[in-house]
Fold this sequence. Notes:
This protein is 43% helix and 19% strand. By secondary structure, the protein is of the alpha/beta class.
Amino acid sequence: MRQWKIKEQNEKMVAALQKGLGCTHFFARILINRGINEVEQALEFLNTSDSDLLDPYLFEGMSQAVERIGRAIGQHEKITVYGDYDVDGITATGLLVEAIRALGGDAEYYIPSRFTEGYGVNSSAIRAIAAGGTRLIITVDTGITAVAEVEEAKRLGLEIIITDHHECQRDLPDTRIINPKYTGCRYPFPDLAGVGVAYKMACALDQKYGSGEGARRFTSFAAIGTVADIMPLRGENRFIVRRGLEDLKETSSIGLKLLMDRCVGDKPVDTAAIGFMIAPRINAAGRLGSAEAGVELLITHDRERAQEIVDQLCAENNRRQEIEAQILEEAVSMIERDPDSEKRGAIVLWQEGWHNGVIGIVASRLKERYGKPCILFSVNGDLAKGSGRSIRPFNLFEALERISGICEKYGGHAYAAGLLVHAGRLPEFRDAFCREADRFLEDHAFDESIEVDCTLRCGDLTLDQIRALSRLAPFGRGNETPVFCMRGVELLDAAPTANQNHMRLVLQCGQQRTTAFYFNISPARFDYLPGDLIDIVFEAEINTYNGRQSVQLTIKDMRYSAALCAPMKTEIRRLKEEQILPADIPSREDAVALYRFLYLKMQQGVNSFDFYTLPGRIACAQQRRLTVGNIFYALQILKELGILEYSLEDQELKNLHIHPEKRVSFGDSEILKNITEKAGDTVWA
């Protein structure tokens, strides 16, 4: 069960901010949670301006790179922008191609195939680009590991300028490098996305060879890539994304406008719209087919062609969702069938035929579900392409660096990485990587907690209060959407959405009735019934429907209300102290009802339960009422008889394994005999 960490604020600071800004107590508390304690600091955060955009020439090597690009433009040399196939790389590619063309340059682009070439710069591509007449290659969102490939380019008479934002390894290419993480780089903001670095190059080019204002039109591309790559939205990124969101409303990109019309419609274009609607469709190009469709969408001036690409991307995104669901189901089944999986500190799985364009998304889902770092591999012949996601504070990149001898190739960030491993070494890799996670866990813990900004009362959920939160936007990593807690809320209704993947809830908060959505929770995994009093952790937003506005909640976690849990905790404490009453003794029928409930839920992929919800859930599903004592001892008896394995921590029942092949007599249980004797009852068969 995830811990709720409810932040506390210094009331004197809250009062000072309230007075200085003329804001609500509620708003001031959220600012303080973001480390903003002074009025001047708050005004700077809330009111971004052009002065927040740093000088691009602070980058080590930017002057020389711009001079070389300017010379290529002036001499009509062909320039190829070499990008990555994710949204960051696609937007960076489109941005820099357009920026160079706007200055009169001859710019083309190249993005490797995820399936036949894999991540990064490769020698075959370099040779093909050289054969096409290119003399200068500029990489975007890739290239920092391309040591051998840069040497190959030099032998072919090509020059390469590398722009990247990934971590730098020990050996670096011998060429011009524009990377905020490059050792010795004076650039004061290290957290730009790949497209952010490309944007800074476009600004530098425009300052030297353009009007000085021309790069403004590319900010929308930079915003999409920055949000999609989950970069921290503080400092310069905050400016880029805020300005880019404004520019998206009037974008000059025909393709982007048509895509937003299709998937966003009349809803606000914010970071959520980018993260959940725009970026996945652009990403679908590189995940299932050619990422070139994504670049073409951004830069085409042909409306008919743009519409074709939008149709293609939306269809591929739907297909990606289907493939993702299938791989997720297979991966969960592999985990649940493996008796050693719960002992390992990480998840490493592989399968021939898994689509390597989707395994990263599934790895992210598994990381969230099991609270462990996860790497999935797609096996093709002798090689396995992997994609990993990590949970804080376990640094995935550093872990891969320590076992790099097993990897053919690897790269990425602290919490997301791609790699290549020889298929025959996958068991060795799994054991080595899990040892890294286990060693980390000896001194640390994976942080599955939810940070909550503050607890609200029902009266706080007003349109004005929630509307005021938009001043804190854009939201994302480093400036997360505010998260709140509310206690003692009544669940009036719960129904699955059309695809059965999410739950739509109706909640009674005092005198106010509110709609909420609980995403990625199927009916099988939803443990609550109408009439239950619950505590919820949630995000709040304004929903507009038929011209009417209302507050709508997105549930992040929920549990039985603390007011109801208190008597249950007392009951469990009594049972653990073996103060046993006759009513606590489970009958054979009680144990059968519990077994059937757990078995059916596990068949549906559910492997953990809120213990306090079990009496109500079993009564609903099995039409049999069990007390807390009945369930507590029936679990122990089934475990003793070898039918069931489980662990019970706090109020979470988890790590369940059922052995349906076991044939035993309920009356043979020593636990049953012992508790019956202590309760003063008689044993029956």
